[in-house]
Fold this protein.
Amino acid sequence: MPDDTTKFLLLALFNQAVLATSAKVALPAHLPAKTPRGRTLVLGAGKAAAAMAAVTAETMSAPLHGIVVTRYGHDCEIPGGKIAIACAAHPVPDEQSTIIARKMLSLAQGCTPEDRMLFLASGGGSSVLSLPAPGLSLLQKQDIIRHLLHSGADIAHINCVRKHLSSIKGGRLAVACGTRDIHTFIISDVPGDAPSAIASGPTIADPTSLADARAVITRYGTPHEEVVVAALNNDANETPKPGTLFEHHTIIAKAEDALTAAAKLAQAKGWQVHNLGDRVEGEARKVGARHANISRKLKARGGRWLLMSGGETTVTVRHKNGGGGPNLEYLAGLALALNGEAGITALSCDTDGIDGSEDNAGAYITPSTLSRATALGLDINEYLENNRTYAFFKALDDLIITGPTLTNVNDFRIIAIES
């Protein structure tokens, strides 16, 4: 069937995008060849941290020690046994997040001027590495982050608040380090690839301010308002600014790389590519509707087109007991706007293998999505309004389940358009 043939193509393009941004492909060429006079401490945080640590251990000849923290289920074997792996919660931190943060600060403080610190940063690090600012409890921090995640705030706003309510983010780990020889290697999941934004930049100077964080809270509100306001009015919680830290950073993989790799493969198979870029943001279902309009315009040109985009869309959570992340809400919005139009099939997945809080990377839609749903008695509008898109796509058997991919350059969306 044409639907299935196109779905196989889209999945192959997604797999190519993930491979191109994996640690094993992207990291080895960037690791330092010269050995320091002292020791090499390896720290890291994020969904790709364990894979990055494994590649580091396999590639570097220098003696290594340290610890990295990743999301539960995103760990892997690290050769040599010198770099430990810990797991913690995402997207809201847990007690393990704070235990590892304290350990990392202690290890960094133990560095001598002759040592080197390598920090391996990737998306998800903001949650799995968390140490609340003085006067703020973990339970309060959890409530604040959970509120912002459900409010529709974008990741830049959320991370701005995180950094100013933290004792390790926003460059503070670098400040604590006993050496100035600090190298940060980054797999970026943030539109624009600002180094200070990925994992909330524990080793990167922060261009945002307490005033910026206060503005976010004013816009979106917060639980524990009195405590939060007090913390954000305390100058001691300001982050170190650009030009004040000794550090080097390299972005080794980003959403643009994923799109480029997929586009090359698609063009080799005879498709024309229209790339919307790696910075697409907005409410997921509304972005889907906009992309339906673009798809129709491409269809009118004739031929075979692939409409590709990366970036990070958001979901406003109306029902906390629903299920389904931004990729599924994007696809639901796209399917509604297309209304079964022939010749248009789409895939939307998170490159880390987990869309939101469920077990799927994303899903497909085809021209038959709405008709099949109707035959099963499913009202897509009802599922979308109740944030239950996971149940909707599961009933259609259109979920894509990959398991953790051990990389993370955020969302990958691709629409196949055939006249």
